Amino acid sequence: MAVDHSRSGTPHDSARVRSAAGVLGQAVIARGGVRHLVDAVTPVAVFLFGYQLFGTGPAVAATVITASLLAGWRWRRGDSPKVVTAALIAVTAYSALVLFTGEGRAFFLPEIVGCAVSAVAFGATLIRGRPLSLLVCQRIRIEPADVDQSRIRQHRRLTAAWAVMWALHVLILLPLYAADQITALAVVTMLLGKPSVLIAVAASWLWVRKR
User: Fold this and answer.
1) What is the DSSP letter of 180?
2) How far is the C-alpha of 157 from the C-alpha of 162, rounded, in Å?
3) What's the half-sphere exposure (Cβ side, CA atoms, 13 Å) at 120?
4) Is 143 left (phi over 0), alpha (psi -120 to 50) or beta?
5) Would you give the distance in Å from CA 32 to the centre of its chain?
6) What is the pLDDT along the chain (211 residues), one digit of tens a residue?
7) DSSP 129
8) Which ranges constitute the DSSP H helices of the chain?
9) pTM to 2 decimal places
10) What is the DSSP string of 140-169?
11) With left for phi above 0 and alpha for psi between -120 and 50, is residue 188 left, alpha or beta?
12) Residues 6 or more apart from 50 whose CB is under 8 A from it?
């Protein structure tokens, strides 16, 4: 009996999906994805471990020390001083917020605020008619200054996808924050924070380059 390979679920479709996933994975790795994941996940893991076992003060101290060691390691490897410094300042600010409020969940508040601001920023550019993904691509010179309407429509879809992604982050994290679920906040942040952004960046880059 003949097999219709045009239907979904065929070996050909599976191979195509695996190929696309492989290309996406290579794009993430090529952009330092593994290093960025380690940098993003390690301070959160250290904070959670320290908070659960020793309390606020030791957790904050361990987190800042870990972030400082990571920053020194990245600096010695030749990473951008601005990027390294910004990452260290961010972790230090998160930790300071915990000390200021006395609440462990405050460590994750900047993440929620940042996601909310990003969702609004991407959504607002859709209303203005100049999708943020297009503006970013033009800024880094992978899109020309003048694009036709079909290209703008494509970037509207891409920008909308980014807005939805950031909004989903808020919808997931905010209830956990309200319920003071620190362990869940840490796990979700490690799984859906930097990893999802890296995948989205790589997927967006591949999408833009293909068109």
Assistant:
1) T
2) 9
3) 6
4) beta
5) 13
6) 444 444 445 555 444 434 444 444 444 444 445 666 777 789 999 999 999 999 999 999 999 999 999 989 888 887 778 878 988 999 999 999 999 999 999 999 999 999 999 999 999 999 887 899 888 888 877 788 787 788 888 889 999 999 999 999 999 999 999 999 999 999 999 888 877 888 888 788 778 777 6
7) T
8) 11-30, 33-54, 56-76, 81-101, 109-128, 132-139, 149-178, 182-188, 194-210
9) 0.80
10) TTSS-SS--HHHHHHHHHHHHHHHHHHHHH
11) alpha
12) 58, 59, 60, 61, 62, 63
Structural tokens at position 164 = 């939805």
In the structure encoding, which two tokens stand for residue 155, read together? 């970037």
| Tokens (6 digits) for 116 | 């909310």
Q: If you search the block for the tokens 């060691």, which residue do you land on?
A: 69
